[in-house]
Amino acid sequence: MNARARLLPLILAACILPWASTAGPSMQDGGHVRVVYEAPRTAAYRGIYREMREHRVLERVGAVIGLVRLPTRLTYRLKECAGELNAWYAPESRSVTVCYELLASVAQAAPRTKSPAGVTRQEAIRGPVFQILLHESSHALFDLLDVPILGREEDAADQIASLILLHLSPADARMVVMGSGYYFATTARDEPVDRGAFADVHGLSWQRFYNLTCMAYGSDERRFRTIVAKDVLPKERAEGCGQEYAQVAFAFRRLIGPHLRVRPGGDERLRRAFRSAFRS
């Protein structure tokens, strides 16, 4: 095992520690959400397995999605994927799968301590991990609730994931924006901008970066004012971000809102419910 592989479990432990609770078994069934932690064959991933399972990362995301009345059980699965860096939702099995390989790549892309822009290593790992999980969860909601989608489904999944994450505590919301933004910007450096990239169902990493920062700024211009002040988000785009956020929030209320277990009572009631579920 090389030095990077030995450090990875420690890195993930530090990142997940704020959500720590009692250890759980490798498989849990909460009725509407089931989580499965498959033990990896590769030794380098066993630390990730132990830490993710012990600190109930899948359960925390499942608790947030569990605020929606799902018509059938949804499974979250962490597994080794034969070298594939991937995460996906499978409608035939109604399951969200995240690969150990992808989590390892997120840790490897993070700065050793802090980036020049001030993104900490913890933010650069925790942010993308939760963004990835909620992005795939959004695909699950679209499928299980028969949500109509105008435009590209991958863009819509990014928007719903961002909306949910921005309803968390200010510290958690900042963590996701800073960490995921760093990850998108980092992957963009090596991303080919060619015909194949433009034909892909996913947006380019720089597009996902600006969409995320615009959603954040639109959700709370005061809290995220440095995004524009430091010219991270162009002022021309920032001018319409409030409207972009409102558009996504309106679609969420109309299309997913009726399925929520949370009683009607405005945005703040939903915000409290998401925060409570995430911290449970």
Kindly summarize this structure in a few lines.
The protein has helices at 3-16, 46-54, 57-65, 100-109, 121-144, 153-165, 170-189, 195-199, 205-219, 226-229, 235-238, 241-255, 267-279, and strands at residues 27-29, 33-37, 74-79, 87-90, 95-99.
Describe the structure.
This protein is of the alpha/beta class and 280 residues long. The chain is 55% helix and 8% strand. It has helices at residues 3-16, 46-54, 57-65, 100-109, 121-144, 153-165, 170-189, 195-199, 205-219, 226-229, 235-238, 241-255, 267-279, and strands spanning 27-29, 33-37, 74-79, 87-90, 95-99. It has a 5-stranded mixed sheet. The longest helix is centred in the middle third of the chain and has 24 residues, at 121-144. It is globular, with a radius of gyration of 18 Å. The chain starts with a helix and ends with a helix. Mean pLDDT is 87; it is low at 1-25. Residues 1-23 form the signal peptide. Pfam families: DUF4344 (PF14247).
